[in-house]
Amino acid sequence: MFKNIYKEWFSNVPRDLIAGLVVALALIPEAIAFSIIAGVDPQVGLYASFSMAVVIAIAGGRPGMISAATGAMALLMLTLVREHGLEYLLAATVLTGLLQMLCGVLRLGEALKFVSKSVMTGFVNALAILIFLAQLPEFEGQGLTMYAMVAAGLGIIYILPRFVKVIPSPLVCIVVLTAVSIFAGMDLRTVGDMGQLPSTLPMFLIPDIPLNLETLWIILPYAIPLTVVGLLESLMTAQIVDDLTDTDSNKNRECVGQGIANTVTGFFGGMAGCAMIGQTVINVKSGGRGRLSTFAAGIYLIAMIVVLGDMVAMIPMAALVAVMVMVSIGTFSWKSIKDLRTHPRMSSAIMIVTVVTVVLTHNLAIGVAIGVLMSVFSFARKAAALVRVGTRLDAEADERIYTVEGNLFFVSAGTFAKAFNYREVVSKVTIDVTRAHFWDISSVTALDRVVLKFRRDGAEVEVNGLNEASATLVQRVGVYDKPGASDSMPLH
Fold first, then answer.
1. Are residues 51 and 204 in contact, defined by beta-carbon separation less than 8 angstroms?
2. Please, which pLDDT band fits residue 485 given cuts at 50, 70 and 90?
3. Does residue 149 contact residue 316 with C-beta atoms inside 8 Å?
4. Is 199 helix (H, G, I), strand (E, B) or coil?
5. In whole angstroms, what is the distance from residue 351 CA to residue 349 CA?
């Protein structure tokens, strides 16, 4: 136990501390920007990023992964904040945490394997598009100065890393544009215009809302998609870190950890968050591997905000827009556009439908759900097409032998039943299912109908080769081998 604690916390201290500082510097603008997307004061996102990072470092299942306020979660909160206010958002955050802990206890962390690559790509692309669209209102009523500042910020973000890689270019963008805005006296909206920044550490508080069923029905429709999106993005990020570091993570523990972090965050005035793909990659590439890097990022973040809060308030919104445009460009999978030419049409269709659904509904959970359903439907069609029924006639024995191959379930059951020639007059029919598997009631029902149709016409029927699992299912729900089975066979 102590050996594992040392490995996860103290085996990489210097690099974890440096990586945590880099991440904290990059987190500040994004946390503020995500707060604005959600329609809350910047302190809500900053408190959330601090709380999420510190708690997930202790409770999470993937060392080195960064969790904080994110754009995916912020987009789901806007309507709740607009219609009911901040207190209901905090309550929804707590409920989200409880639901996520329940998912972990039920071991739903393994459910990520049911999300296809096409759906994941569509999820990421839709998130990128929504983050970009969320920046457009910032240009309304602004002059050319706003456009020029955003363009300059993007120039800094993309050109600076070619020469300097130690300091995050988004932070340099914010510092430079803030200095230019102040010294040039530009009339631009600033972070301070958007709301109150924190000057103290977050304090424990219970959301000031009525504790009744009406409140539950208000926050539950938001807590459920927050739960799904938060876990989906966190588990996807955990898989990315697994691949980058060639190590494994505990997905179910990560679900519980995200739940604990969100529950604590809600009671300390923060909005719901989840793992951040971009910041996690920054952490890993900066040398962060252990839990200490995530913990340090949270501590550095709150320390800088409390001490430098007045300076943060002077940041022009143009700088944050540039950062968020960078995030959206970096998040979008541009390779997926080229892959449309080479990938199977159905895979490309699933990706496109996922993107379009999310963008139109502004709900990542709905888009992912539709994408998963399309993937299941596509797989079912392909699996059903693999069912083969071969046949040969033993003339001497007056016996027709059918050989069945493939997976038989509700989609392929109809194909299976139509593959037999019921009009042929033979004394005996043998159905060899050695290379087949019966998965559900629909497939067993189809077998019943095949056997009983042949028996109705006077043929002796024998079913051979059922494997153990299929035989158990047939014994439980099948009727062809039960007394009186022929009476249950319809005449049409």
1. no
2. low
3. yes
4. coil
5. 5
Residue 7: half-sphere exposure toward Cβ, Cα within 13 Å = 6
SS3 labels along 60-120: CCCCCCCEECCHHHHHHHHHHHHHHCHHHHHHHHHHHHHHHHHHHHCCHHHHHHHCCHHHH
Token look-up 């136990």 returns: 1
Mean pLDDT for the stretch of residues 453-478:
89
Q: How far apart are CA 66 and CA 84, in angstroms?
A: 30
The angle at the Cα of 427, spanning 426 to 433, to the nearest 5 degrees, equals: 85
pTM of the model: 0.72
Chain segment 160-174, per-residue pLDDT in tens: 888 877 777 777 888
Question: Is residue 320 within 8 Å of 190, Cβ to Cβ?
Answer: no
Sequential DSSP letters for 355-422:
HHHHHHHT-HHHHHHHHHHHHHHHHHHHHHHT-EEEEEEETTTTEEEEEEEEEESTTTHHHHHHTS-T
- pLDDT tens track for 307-316: 877 777 788 8
pLDDT, one tens digit per residue, over 50-60 is 999 999 999 99
DSSP state of 316: B
